[in-house]
């Protein structure tokens, strides 16, 4: 039973990367609209709508799971504030910078550069949660980081406004790395993963609304999206993919702890490149393909149990 649970948790982590890569490509497709592309702060508005719709999805999902009592108990449990803090790092900070980076350097570069977040998360997790990592896993993590840094340099020198996009992608990684560790700490306080994600989306949506009211003042962009059936459908689909991704991701964090969950989720950089090629015809260069392969291999080495590697080597002999 424990093996099956571990296997399920690893699949949750992997598929969180698949769906996140797909959602990123759909966001890039949304940003191609001429009216939206002309507004500098539209990524923040889209991120707000994305999390707000996701919150609605999660609300009905929890009702379907008959967890209305857990929803009502949110305000009574002080531990839920931990998830709220994580939401600020992952939502208004991480997601906004992620979409801004997509706008400037495209989904392929953004996905791979922002995949630095496990390195940041690992350091925070090591110091705060005492989460250890084996030597093979450390080598895998270093491989992923090095590949990401090479791609980041490539993006900053070959893409127009690349250095701005690189900065946004790095700040996104900082936000996501902090979020995953704080969320894991909160779930260790007996907060179920689906409730944690529901709180995350609620807190993130409120944070975005405050941010928009105070700084953005660009509600015509919202009306433009909602008045266009194609854009609205695309936004709803994007948010659904992101919701599925995060729900799987939080389940993986709950079972595997941050380091291994991040190692599986980081494969979104590869999936994003593949989906970008299939959906929006974004080219795949040999360098990009090799770097993405490096990220995938590094992620696998970080997530896999070293005892299983020894068994595999023995079997191949």
TrEMBL record:
<feature type="transmembrane region" description="Helical">
    <location>
        <begin position="37"/>
        <end position="60"/>
    </location>
</feature>
<feature type="transmembrane region" description="Helical">
    <location>
        <begin position="136"/>
        <end position="156"/>
    </location>
</feature>
<dbReference type="InterPro" id="IPR000620">
    <property type="entry name" value="EamA_dom"/>
</dbReference>
<dbReference type="GO" id="GO:0005886">
    <property type="term" value="C:plasma membrane"/>
</dbReference>
<feature type="transmembrane region" description="Helical">
    <location>
        <begin position="80"/>
        <end position="101"/>
    </location>
</feature>
<feature type="domain" description="EamA">
    <location>
        <begin position="9"/>
        <end position="151"/>
    </location>
</feature>
<comment type="similarity">
    <text>Belongs to the drug/metabolite transporter (DMT) superfamily. 10 TMS drug/metabolite exporter (DME) (TC 2.A.7.3) family.</text>
</comment>
<feature type="transmembrane region" description="Helical">
    <location>
        <begin position="107"/>
        <end position="129"/>
    </location>
</feature>
<feature type="transmembrane region" description="Helical">
    <location>
        <begin position="206"/>
        <end position="226"/>
    </location>
</feature>
<feature type="transmembrane region" description="Helical">
    <location>
        <begin position="262"/>
        <end position="280"/>
    </location>
</feature>
<feature type="transmembrane region" description="Helical">
    <location>
        <begin position="12"/>
        <end position="31"/>
    </location>
</feature>
<feature type="transmembrane region" description="Helical">
    <location>
        <begin position="286"/>
        <end position="304"/>
    </location>
</feature>
<keyword id="KW-0472">Membrane</keyword>
<dbReference type="InterPro" id="IPR050638">
    <property type="entry name" value="AA-Vitamin_Transporters"/>
</dbReference>
<dbReference type="Pfam" id="PF00892">
    <property type="entry name" value="EamA"/>
</dbReference>
<keyword id="KW-1133">Transmembrane helix</keyword>
<keyword id="KW-1003">Cell membrane</keyword>
<feature type="transmembrane region" description="Helical">
    <location>
        <begin position="162"/>
        <end position="185"/>
    </location>
</feature>
<feature type="transmembrane region" description="Helical">
    <location>
        <begin position="232"/>
        <end position="250"/>
    </location>
</feature>
<dbReference type="InterPro" id="IPR037185">
    <property type="entry name" value="EmrE-like"/>
</dbReference>
<feature type="domain" description="EamA">
    <location>
        <begin position="164"/>
        <end position="302"/>
    </location>
</feature>
<protein>
    <recommendedName>
        <fullName>Threonine/homoserine exporter RhtA</fullName>
    </recommendedName>
</protein>
<keyword id="KW-0812">Transmembrane</keyword>
